[in-house]
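Weekly puzzle thread! Below is a chain. First person to post its structure in token form gets bragging rights.
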Amino acid sequence: MRRTLTIAAILIVILGVAVGIYFFFFANRAPTLTVGGGAVNNPFGGVGDGSGAAATGNDIGTSETQGMEQTAVAAQPAPRLVEIAAGPIAEGVAMVRVVIPAVYAAATGSSTVPTVVTATSTDTEIRYIERASGNVYAYRIHANTLTRISNRTIPGVQEASWLADGSLAYTRYVTTDADGTMHAEGYALPANGIGGFALPRDLAQVSAAGSSTLFTLASGDNGSVGTISKADGTGGATAFSSALSQITAFFSSGGLFAMTKPSASAGGYAFSIDGKGNFTRAVGPLNALSIMPNHAGTKLLVSYLDRGTLKLASYDLAAKQLTALPVATLAEKCVWAADDLSAYCAVPVSLPSGTLPDDWYQGATFFTDRLWKVDFDSRVAELVTNLPTLAKTDIDAVSLTLDPTEDAISFINKRDGSLWSYDL
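Winning reply:
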């Protein structure tokens, strides 16, 4: 009898341990397609805390998990607001319009004509790169489906700059040499994961322009050199050479612009750059100056500090006129509409204490944003949505992106690197 009781006790203990393991590892795990990772030193000032493992030159390859996955996205806090990926994702996404072919049922009986089940339609697709793995995903807004379209692995991708058609992303990530020296690496990654090529090491900036142009910026103690080439990296030509070493450049169909690194304690400058590489001062000196040029290169969104107060304004390059706008946010938290007549901006509900915007750039503080649309002719700001109310969480929106038809807007939450979309 005692032996029977002993065996029964052992079986109960084993069963309890098994149940405990199940609930600890599986029962409370939310369904997701994302892959987590450890921390990595990040010279790019990326978003979120989970950065993934640093890549090495041999880390680019194919994921062990083969095949593409597709699932309905369940995280929909409100009918028009969706959390696409819990993150973290690489900063920078593409939004493209895609054609969805018609679906036909096979002809039956005496009919020789297939039955149309679903007619040809279009949808807005958001393409993004998971930071930990480098896998590429595509989310269709109206179909509410998420598909992994590439399982090519580039661990630790921090930034992605996409061609306008969403066919290729220029990625940047961190590697560490045997002597402990860290470097910024770049790789041109096609959305389907097939092909691609390495970019020069330690570039300060890599940006796509349109669907056929690559802009790179190399900076050092002796200044900066901007280069323009074809999307495949060939045919490179120097766009400018400057003695300024700490600049950010903007390249669009409207031309080239540059700004000095923004800081609350220093007067910053913004410049237009002509076809011969000559710099012309546009705005400055203004403390914490940051800009966002429009598509045509005729106006700049400008943020700056005025006696310690954050301001947002538009600057007309032809009229050389700075016009105050009715909301206060950083220029990089905005995106121009396609017609250049308005912009969408993530505007903080209130500004935290500390040294702004320096603390925000360094990740020492975060904002809680609402989404506004600013009309430049009327100088009127319209509230699009109150993000914290809809999302039930605080969102510090960066990397705002509009689709070509202004059907939807996407953004990344700087707090955790999650990706969101809002159906306009």
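Puzzle host: Confirmed. Bonus trivia for everyone else. Residues 17-43, 49-58, 62-67 have pLDDT under 50 and may be disordered.
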